[in-house]
Model the fold of this input.
Amino acid sequence: MAIKAFIDANILLDLILKRERYHEAKQIFQSIEEDNIDGYITSSVLHITGYWTTKEYGTTKAKSILLSLLNVITVIDIRHETAQIALHSKIDDIEDALQYYTAIHHKLDYFITRDKQLKKDGTPALAVISPDDFITLMR
Done:
């Protein structure tokens, strides 16, 4: 059974925009494409990624890129009760809280992000891990 991992927007943007950490993001997505990892995002991550991808490449290319991503990544939803739990959590960043608790609700194994504060605020229920550490773990 594949590892189930939430992929934060910063990882998607590293890949799509070929930012400084592109190679790490590419390794993660190669593992997704090879079915070693099941990748998940929320609609919020899709929205953020769509915004920046459209700014960089225009609407037509952005849609094509996002549709390709959706061939290998699954969009998960947040439930009303999960949103309430997230907003009562100690995570100050509302977007991070909503995504993190959505990932917990869906029983994912890892939350892959570059967000250092989220790593500090995470709970034992879901490991928050950097792309570097996740790649090392997968080896």
